[in-house]
Amino acid sequence: MFEILEKVLKKKTDVDDNTLKKIVSYFKIIHTKRNQILVTSEEICQNYYFINKGCIRLFTISKDGNDNSRFFAFEENFATALPSFIDQKPAEEYLQTIQDSELLYISRTDFYHLVNTLPQFAKLYTEILENGFIIAQKRIYGFQGFDAKEKVEWIIKHQPKLLLNVSNKMVASYLGISASTLSRVKSKL
Amino acid sequence: MFEILEKVLKKKTDVDDNTLKKIVSYFKIIHTKRNQILVTSEEICQNYYFINKGCIRLFTISKDGNDNSRFFAFEENFATALPSFIDQKPAEEYLQTIQDSELLYISRTDFYHLVNTLPQFAKLYTEILENGFIIAQKRIYGFQGFDAKEKVEWIIKHQPKLLLNVSNKMVASYLGISASTLSRVKSKL
DNA sequence: CAAAAAAGTTGCCCTATGTCAACGTTTTTT
DNA sequence: AAAAAACGTTGACATAGGGCAACTTTTTTG
């Protein structure tokens, strides 16, 4: 149940086994369904999630009803509605599992308790932030000035998992193009 | 010379005056010209900058020669080519001052020394990261699905400073629209 | 396993926005 | 102060890609 999380933590930090056990003891398990919402736009996000199995999507719904995918996280990764988690304001974005998933989660209270008492955990958090920042930045700015074809080529190169595991519709909304355009582009390579 | 930095640090952290003096003692001052490059695309970023006066722009130049503005930082803020600063890889982006500016800067070595020895500074860094993440996210995702007019309205609402202090050309490249389009949109409010 | 729902594909048309160029204005340089 | 360069504005034109709809294929559900 906690093996994957332990493995990941061991890889990312240098904690002894006791500390490791202590950390994971704060996590609880939850099984979720395809398309199950974890956090709604109005809610304040209270948990940090770790994906044992499945996939989490972060998205928004615009006034005209279109949904925009912001981020996908797969197995062995952490995910949450970070701005809301940090500032405890309404998320203004949705968190959902797009497949039946097995997640571990830790409450915000416990999370910050660990950050404030375990330097190794604080360091892990810093790394998560640094990484998240870099990835978000690469992804977003990577697209600047790209046309539809270039975006698709970019995604194939940098996140091939996405095209394999996620519906066209969601990939399209992630790339900021329409589903039809994505379909057309893919048919021409 | 260090008053502004001290003021900002005092507001953001709860350090005693001695620690404060110690922190600022690692910073050096530099005066730069309009359009002076601080970090080139090929360089590895070695400094974290604090803006006493002026404005820093982060941008890239695409293969076809267009420049894309990623970020503007004004007085009383920190700025650097963060991914490069963190990972010590070539920046793949440029850092420049777009007006004559007065900057304070701290070397990466000293910066991480402070992060690793002063918990208050570590906390400050965490806050900078959290904030940077949230702002970048808001800005980027804020634009998703916006047309040119909506982007301009967004910028007027959220970063009015930009339109006042930065050339149309740079604002346009920040918004991901052409200078002509920006000009046309502005003329219709 | 059948029916229903969702997702993907493709054609047609249309609009927002890019490109280019000409021109006027402002800023920079010397 | 004059010359040069950069910037902003506007018109004419071209086009990528969105919206919609009809149809097919895949997935989900009972």
UniProtKB/TrEMBL annotation, chains A, B:
Q: Which residues form the Cyclic nucleotide-binding domain?
A: 31-116
What is the official name of this protein in its record? cAMP-binding protein
**What InterPro entries does the entry give?**
cNMP-bd_dom (IPR000595), cNMP-bd_dom_sf (IPR018490), RmlC-like_jellyroll (IPR014710)
Superkingdom per UniProt: Bacteria
> Can you name the source organism?
Flavobacterium frigoris (strain PS1)
Q: Which CDD domains match?
A: CAP_ED (cd00038)
